[in-house]
């Protein structure tokens, strides 16, 4: 019983870590795409000047 509980707890911790890292990675990817889009838009806008 105790071994099952420990295994379940370890599984929950691993699941939370994977979820947290996937959310952090998606947020970082979104930030990079946002910065890239803003920089590209600014360069396209400021090119004729």
**What portion of residues is helical?**
over 70%
Count the E strands: 0
- Unreliable stretches, pLDDT < 50, 5 or more residues? none
End-to-end C-alpha gap: 73 Å
Note the total helix count: 1
Radius of gyration: 21 Å
Transmembrane segments: 12-43
Organism: Helicobacter pylori NQ4200
Protein name: Putative membrane protein
Keywords: Membrane, Transmembrane, Transmembrane helix
Question: How would you sum up this structure, described in words?
Answer:
This protein is mainly α. The chain has one domain. Helix content is 92%, strand content 0%. It has one helix and no strands. The relative contact order is 0.07.
Task: Name a few traits of the molecule.
49 residues, 1 helix, 92% helix, mainly alpha
Topology overview:
Layout: H1 2-46
Short description:
The chain has 49 residues and is mostly helical. The protein has one helix at residues 2-46.
